[in-house]
Predict the structure.
Amino acid sequence: MYKLLRAGKLPGRKIGQLWRIPREELLMYLRSSERKRKAGEKKPGPKKQKGLPQQDAR
């Protein structure tokens, strides 16, 4: 979330050490990201394990 705020992709203001995000802006961002995900972006699948040799099914 902090990366989005610093990059300006999510509007907010830093007051001292705290970030303040307008509620409507946050809700709009969450709704738009949910629509993008539902529109066909792949969900992350299971991670492949590294270091294990693949065996042929012979």
Notes: The chain has two helices and two strands.
